[in-house]
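Question (not urgent): is this output format expected?
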Amino acid sequence: MSETIKPALSAFQWNSIRRDGDVWTVTPTAQMPLDPASLPRVSRANAALYLALANYVLPDADPRKITHNMVDALRNIAEDSPWDESLGLVVNGIAEVLESYLPPK
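Got this back:
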C-alpha cells in the first residue's frame, strides 16, 4: 500500500496566491512555515527554475520528489502499451515534462 502524499499547499495557502502582472506571490499570512519577512515571488520566466530547484532540494525519501527512475518507469509504461498509441503519447509527454525538472543523468 502506498503512502498518501500530503498536498504541498493547504487550501488556505492556495487561496492566498496573488498575481501582480507576471509575478505570483503567496500572501504573508499564508506563509506559516516561512519567515514572515520574506515574500516568495515567482514570475513565469523563472517558474521552471523554481520547480527544478524545489525538486532538487527535496530529500530523496520524500514521495513528492521527481526522479529519473520515475521518468524511466513512465517511458517503460508507454513502450509496453503499443496497443494504445494515445496513452503512450500522453505518458511520454508526462515523462518529458518531469524530466525537464531533473539534472542531467
